Automatic annotation (TrEMBL):
<dbReference type="GO" id="GO:0004146">
    <property type="term" value="F:dihydrofolate reductase activity"/>
</dbReference>
<keyword id="KW-0812">Transmembrane</keyword>
<dbReference type="Pfam" id="PF00186">
    <property type="entry name" value="DHFR_1"/>
</dbReference>
<comment type="pathway">
    <text>Cofactor biosynthesis; tetrahydrofolate biosynthesis; 5,6,7,8-tetrahydrofolate from 7,8-dihydrofolate: step 1/1.</text>
</comment>
<protein>
    <recommendedName>
        <fullName>dihydrofolate reductase</fullName>
        <ecNumber>1.5.1.3</ecNumber>
    </recommendedName>
</protein>
<comment type="function">
    <text>Key enzyme in folate metabolism. Catalyzes an essential reaction for de novo glycine and purine synthesis, and for DNA precursor synthesis.</text>
</comment>
<dbReference type="InterPro" id="IPR025698">
    <property type="entry name" value="2TM_dom"/>
</dbReference>
<feature type="transmembrane region" description="Helical">
    <location>
        <begin position="67"/>
        <end position="87"/>
    </location>
</feature>
<feature type="domain" description="DHFR">
    <location>
        <begin position="145"/>
        <end position="304"/>
    </location>
</feature>
<comment type="similarity">
    <text>Belongs to the dihydrofolate reductase family.</text>
</comment>
<dbReference type="InterPro" id="IPR012259">
    <property type="entry name" value="DHFR"/>
</dbReference>
<dbReference type="GO" id="GO:0046654">
    <property type="term" value="P:tetrahydrofolate biosynthetic process"/>
</dbReference>
<dbReference type="GO" id="GO:0046452">
    <property type="term" value="P:dihydrofolate metabolic process"/>
</dbReference>
<keyword id="KW-1133">Transmembrane helix</keyword>
<keyword id="KW-0472">Membrane</keyword>
<feature type="transmembrane region" description="Helical">
    <location>
        <begin position="32"/>
        <end position="55"/>
    </location>
</feature>
<dbReference type="GO" id="GO:0006730">
    <property type="term" value="P:one-carbon metabolic process"/>
</dbReference>
Length: 305
């Protein structure tokens, strides 16, 4: 129990692998040697059986004794065995498999690196385009407070058949009071929904039509950025609609003066959803129904957070 332990010889992994390999090769060569001996004895037996014992003496293929073919087939099998031992197993053994595997792994890694590089490139392009978007949607000339003014239903409906859906006189009065003396920026369709330009306001109409002509004094531009640029001397220009222009202006406006009509309506034009992560409600006044107002509504002011 307390006697000295015999030291156990330690062999490292590489040595063990070499020994295992050598043993395998010895086994393969022994097998080949055995095959050779059996082939020799077998060949002699076939020759004796045919020539001495006369077995199948009359059976010939193309005038050649059958044992010649039997020996040739056996010889082919022996050569195949020989090839396996000295070529296939020697050069395509474990090391060869390992090397092939490493090559494949390296190839795959290379592909992964290329894909990664492609992704980084794509991200950079996307990031650049975001910056570009930001640069183009935030006009350089905007030195004033840009306000969106709109009346929208609970379901964000704002228009149907290029007309307003309701008539709320206090809402119109508020619109008049707020926009009086200012630039009012609008899409071509909203402009055309007016019987005539509104008094005491500078109309800026956005259209893609190069030859669009409007009444004298109406400024015609071909983009929202140009509209804001045209109103740069105004400390508080208003975006007055419609749906297409509101959608584009949401990203650049500083304020929203919303009249929320507390009902749902059928419409073909809608106001975009107001994201409360971006917009903060700063004022809210409720208005009941009465003889001149068929619907309840609230005046709500939002400012950009
Ligand atoms: N409830 C409210 O407070 C309120 C306020 C205003 C309007 N509305 C309603 O809204 C409806 C109209 O809105 P909508 O969306 O149909 O039309 P819109 O926004 O008034 O005008 C659209 C037109 O503006 C021009 N346009 C738009 N984006 C442009 C850009 N980036 N560059 C150059 N031109 C551009 C195009 O004109 P061209 O086709 O000439 O190129 C386009 O067809 C009507 O029903 C109206 O009554 C409601």
């Amino acid at each position: 129990m307390f006697g000295k332990k015999k030291p156990i010889p330690q062999i490292d992994k590489d040595q063990l692998e070499l020994i295992e390999n050598a043993q395998k090769r010895i086994k393969q060569k022994k097998g080949l040697y055995a095959h050779f001996v059996i082939f020799l004895i077998g060949a002699i037996f076939l020759i004796v059986a045919n020539t001495v014992l006369g077995i199948g003496k009359d059976f010939k293929i193309l005038e050649i004794d059958w044992f010649v073919f039997a020996i040739l087939i056996w010889l082919f099998l022996f050569v195949y065995h020989l090839f396996n031992v000295f070529v296939t197993n020697k050069f395509m053994g474990k090391d060869w498999e390992k090397a092939q595997l490493q090559k494949l792994v390296a190839k795959q890694q290379n592909r992964i690196e290329k894909l990664k590089a492609g992704l980084v490139k794509e991200e950079t392009i996307l990031a650049k385009s975001e910056v570009f978007k930001e640069e183009t949607t935030k006009p350089i000339n905007k030195g004033s407070e840009l306000t969106i003014i709109v009346a929208a239903a609970e379901n964000n409906a704002i228009g149907l058949g290029n007309k307003l859906i309701w008539h709320l006189s206090d809402d119109l009065k508020r619109f008049k009071a707020l926009t009086n003396g200012h630039h009012i920026i609008m899409g071509r369709k909203t402009f055309e929904s007016f019987p005539k330009p509104l008094p005491n306001r500078t109309h800026v109409v956005i259209t893609r039509q190069e030859d669009y002509s409007a009444h004298a004094g109406v400024i015609v531009v071909h983009s929202l950025e140009d509209a804001i640029d045209a109103a740069r001397k105004d400390s508080n220009p208003y975006i007055i609609g419609g749906g297409q222009i509101y959608k584009q202006a949401m990203a650049i406006a500083d304020k929203i003066e919303l009249t929320r009509v507390h009902e749902n309506f059928d419409a073909d034009t809608y106001f975009p959803e107001i994201d409360t992560n971006v917009w903060k409600e700063t004022a809210n006044t409720f208005h009941t129904k009465d003889e001149t107002h068929a619907h309840e509504f609230s005046f709500i002011t939002y400012t950009r957070k």
